[in-house]
Amino acid sequence: MKFDLSAWPEVGLRQVRSAFRAVPLKAYPELAGYSRAEIHEGLAGQGGLFLASDMARLLTLKAGVRVLDLGCGEGTTSIFLARHFGARVFAVDEDLPDSLPLRASRAGVGGLVTPVRADARKLPFPPGSFDAVFSMNAFFYFGTDDLYPPYLLRFLKDRGELVIGSPCYREEIGADAPEEFLLEFPACLAVHSPDWWRRHFAKTGEVEVLHAELHPRGAEFWEDRVRFLLEDRPPEGMKPGMRNMVRAIIRMLNRDEDGFVSHFMLHARKGKPIKLQPNHG
User: Fold this and answer.
1) 166, 138 in Cβ contact below 8 A?
2) Is the Cβ–Cβ distance between 75 and 113 less than 8 Å?
3) H or E stretch including 141?
């Protein structure tokens, strides 16, 4: 069902709920006891802790493993990984809030979450520091350069794992892409298809890509986020930037009838580097 933008911003929750799906809480037993606000608040982008849960399921997480949460925003995913798996999480973001240590302490994981305010391209860690890298709704902002995957992989131990979850296009967009799909332009130009991301990491010769697919709830995550934002606060109570973003997402969903705009997950394991022979031809 399409959303009637002619009524924007004077919309009712009945219309919102009839137009967009909500991710069912029962599909995520690890989030039992969480409110929908706790699943979404403090997280940029779509998917909330639903997407974080699915990403974590791909990793081999247990107490004591060292995880780099890269581009963690406010650190909500870092607290989640420490709380549910006992992981020692290094929460890295260049705009990390000062409130993270207190929030981690209140969640009972103050000793497991280490805040690190740093640029993703200038990580202050020695090689082989981590068992896993986790990056949700952030990697496309800094990781599309061909040289970035080899740089990042140096911080993983041998056989260490990496998981990325992010918005994506089902296929690569071209110059004729509908204007509605170019959300957050020009950042959207760094949003790619799962196949693109598979090649991006595989060509390093240093990893085995185990999974690079559209998320089965990829389109649903967009709808669920709109529902939450409008249920949490009516448009007239939003800041102009947020109100405009919600309207832009609705326009995109109205135009996208077959799930071209979605989300993906990539899971890779670091292996022995392939020694490429120089071409002197």
Assistant:
1) yes
2) yes
3) helix 139-142
Exposed e or buried b for every residue in 195-220, given b needs 16+ CB within 10 A? ebbbebbeebebbebeebebbebbbb
Q: Which residue has the tokens 């949700």?
A: 136
Question: How many Å apart are CA 3 and CA 253, to the nearest integer?
Answer: 8
CB 76 within 8 A of CB 38: no
pTM of the shown model:
0.92
CATH of span 5-270: 3.40.50.150
Q: Is the pLDDT of residue 12 over 70?
A: no
Contact 233, 37 (CB under 8 A): no
User: Does residue 275 surpass a pLDDT of 60?
Assistant: no
Encoding tokens for residue 266? 């990539």
Mean pLDDT of the chain, nearest integer? 91
3-state SS, residue 263: strand
Tokens in use for 124?
A: 């202050």
The tokens for 255 are: 């135009």
| Helices 240-255 and 218-232, axial angle in degrees (round to 10) | 140
Name the 3-class secondary structure at 209. Answer: strand
If you ran DSSP here, which 8-state letter would residue 128 be given?
T
Using alpha carbons only, give the angle 34, 38, 39 rounded to the nearest 5 degrees: 80
- Beta-bridge partners for 167: 263
Boundaries of every domain in the chain: 5-270
- Using DSSP, state whether 23 is helix, strand or coil: coil
